Amino acid sequence: MDGAQAQTELPAPFDAWFAERGWRPRAHQLAMLDEATAGRDAMLIAPTGGGKTLAGFLPSLIELATRPRPNTPPGIHTLYISPLKALAVDIERNLMAPIAEMGLSIKAESRTGDTGMARRQRQRVKPPDILLTTPEQLALFCAWEGARLYFEDLACVIVDEVHSIWPSKRGDLLALDLARLQQFAPKMRRVGLSATVDDPAVIQRWMARTAGAEVDLVLGAAGAPPVVDMLLSEGQVPWAGHTAHHAMAEVYEVIKRARIALVFVNTRFQAEFAFQELWRLNEDSLPIALHHGSLAAEQRRKVEAAMARGTLRAVVCTSTLDLGVDWGDVDLVIQLASPKGASRMVQRIGRANHRLDEPSHALFVPANRFEMLECQAAREAIAENALDSEPERTGALDVLAQHIMGLACSEPFDLVSLYDELRTAGPYRDLSWEDYEQVVDFVSTGGYALKTYDRFRRIVRGLDGLWRVRNEETALRHRMNVGAIVSPAMLSVRISSGRRSSPGRKIGEVEEGYLEVLEVGDTFVFAGQVWRLMGVTGTDVLVTSAAGEDAKMPSWGGSKFALSTFLARRVRQLMSDGDHWRVLPDDVREWLEIQRDRSAIPAQDEMLLETFPRGQRHFMVAYPFEGRLAHTTLAMLLTRRLERLGVGPLGFVCNDYALVVWSIKPMDGLDFADLFAEDMLGDDLEAWFAESSMMKAAFKACALISGLIERRFRQDQKSGRQISFSTDLVYDVLRRHQPDHLLLKAARADAAKGMVDVARLGQLLTRIKGRIRHSPLEHLSPFSVPMILEIGKQRSPGSAGEMILAEAAETLIAEATA
Amino acid sequence: MSPAAFARSPCGGIAVRIGEAEALLRATGALWLAAARTLVVADLHFEKGSAYAARGQMLPPYDTGETLRRLAAEVEALQPAAIVFLGDSFHDGEGEARMATGYAEALVALSRGRSLVWVVGNHDADGPSDLPGEVVDDVRLEGLTLRHEPRVGPQAGEAAGHLHPCARVTGPGRTVRRPCFVTDGQRIVLPAFGAYAGGLNVRDRAFATLFAAPPLAIALGPRHAQPIGWRRLVGD
Q1: Which residues on chain B are in Cβ contact (under 8 Å) with A733?
Q2: Are residues A781 and A699 part of one domain?
Q3: CB crowding A54-90: b at 16 or more within 10 Å, else e
Q4: Cys-Cys crosslink for B124: which of A532, A695, B12, B90, Cβ 3.0 to 4.6 Å?
């Protein structure tokens, strides 16, 4: 195992502490110590269970334990940043143990949004040696008056789970705050702790103090490779569907044999469904729990606590448990339905078995045949340790606006020196002076061409040439709105009491829009039970129990994650190579063989396109394998073109693998090279984009993060819904009167990336140029069956009774979705 | 069936009877009384953007211009003899003072050859002081009483604003929310005409006491107003 050649470097109490436990410091722990002694920035990549956290803290503990008694009360020595509140609190507990056992006089405290007022105030006056917190709290610190003094002794910042934070707006904000801390404490060391990633250099560049500054890479010993199995279900893998309904009995048996299993799914509805099914089968009354983002926070905390105590046998969960506190006893991770990406799967599998020398066990349960291919591709990628890679990140301008406002609330700034400081932050190294000036103008007056707000400036330039916040009231309001997470407005789900005055017991919270497809009277599953929707009043969703009834399952299988580019390529590769099929179960191989005989199997870089008549309609199915987002955008744009060609398109359906469009007239004779030509990403895209609800959603997020719209108020509590309506109004007005405004540009960039995947669609169109393989068919093909089945599951519009009104409503819907 | 009889008009609006009066509900949210050649618009909330900016929220300063643009388009299309502003024309008492000269001039230009009537609302209780036109508490016209805030309980022959009605309709996989007129054929509540005026769902209890029978909502749209039956409407 890891050698310990440098054991003498450890001070006596530490040496003794390791020895008492029969441990020896691991090589990467000692390497991190060397980095610290040399004052160098470092990133540690190690699997879970490798003593990663201790490796991060050990140098700080030693420094603190051995430093001479200071004359004045010292400030914070080490700042630890975690993406999760729970993790910060858990690390605090884990750190207290060695500190107490070695009898060190070191104070480590957490501070999160949940920390009480008294403790917060004490921490301000009397800082702990080690402070454990979140990026949002750090942003708040940086918006304080006196932040400079508070952090002047800072020796080290540890960013945990850095691989999950950096490629996001939270990462942008954190990078900017690190740049600020470095100004306060020029000698501060940066330490990143990361899970295994495909391209560490991208994170190293993100972490670096300035462009070109070095961050050393320290690698922990690799853990035993995970053992990933696939549930074959004895030739019963269905053609279509997302729920893995067919395999539930087998999943239950697997859970019974495991000690503790984590059952991951991709959507909250799938979580509810799987939980329901498992309990239907649960003859042994195994303690099986449910965990997803729509459940009330206290309910989730209860599940987490039960998990920590080891009293549960399984938890059905969504990405809410991708990261989190270590539960040593989990010995199996089950992934129900599509894994979507290799890195995410490695992260999830890492939740099982935190002992380094034993392999983690995982079981993939594909819900349909395409997912069988995807699961196989993911298994092979994981075995080769080949992961998805993330492109370099350009910092978001709405986040920059928030940061600059925060700095002005903390202390006056000079325009030029701040520009230099900002550009030391990884995602903002290429920030142009023009963009910077625009952002500063935005922060001050909203950045409008019409200069009527100069007298209302939020930040003002003083006679000394420095910019400062206009008044304390403005600063106070800014501090209430810090953070780069925009959570959707939540509605409370309550049991209807039948009386207006008392809304009834709360059973959880749902995102606005979660129940959008349901109508009053419909039944649905929530928090593991069947309910009937009685109505919505204000921010309450009123329900009554509908126990024993069949719940309506919404038909969509959409997940917020799309199939990753990397995994998609591997799926195409696997599919195009007939020799490779022997690793697949018989029924799936047969399905591929029939597809080859009846239609075609595309070569790796080809795109298969099938056309066939069915019923009164004509169908076109394209198989780009580029993920749901890119497919939806493509289908939108194709429909516009088909409309112009007079084909009369009637509708489309997309999933991660393919898209189908159906029409009144046949499409066999079309010029497909022309239909899929790259120029569709021009005017058509822009026209569709500007009107789409996705742009409005992206604009709303940018408006909230940049501070254009406040989300938290001191007195008049405006509900999230009222805010959402007003950002739509603002969007419409701004788009008409100043289409080049900073926030519209920022929103467009976000929507193009996160919601529409324009870049990926562009790559797709380039890839298939001259490589479209058209297969004109008499009947549907084996591949097209899942797509046709998806169409059948779409809900038909409401009852036909009031013809004219339903028609009116449909017109409304058609306009809004156009 | 809905109590209100209506017909689609070629202009995209909906023709209805409100008490004794024949009214055209425009897809823009304006109400047109053809017999009196009078255009009625409610809740313009001029200078709402600058009211927020004064408190530190820099909403785009284009709302007054946008509302005026919409109003001018209606005036151009209908050539009214009178324009009735149904209250809350300004977002607050200082709104008129904050209004850019150009916008005030545009309003003066609109008043040429026609009369302006400013019904006062709760946001602008005194009405404008320097702009042309008459400031009143309410107006009687064509057998209708035009006032800002609807009276409690069913009222025959009233046209009011104040509530900013909005209709929400659920379709397969998504919902649409739009400003709307709401009427039972006896009285009508107008949607807010202002660019930054938000909306209150017609299923809200504020509307519950206004109508004896389930009313009809007429949702606004880019080209056509759409009548929606009560049962198709959902709460927020």
Answers
A1: 60, 62-63, 66, 195-196
A2: yes
A3: bbbbbbbbbbbbeeeeeeeeebbbbbbbbbbbbbbbb
A4: B90
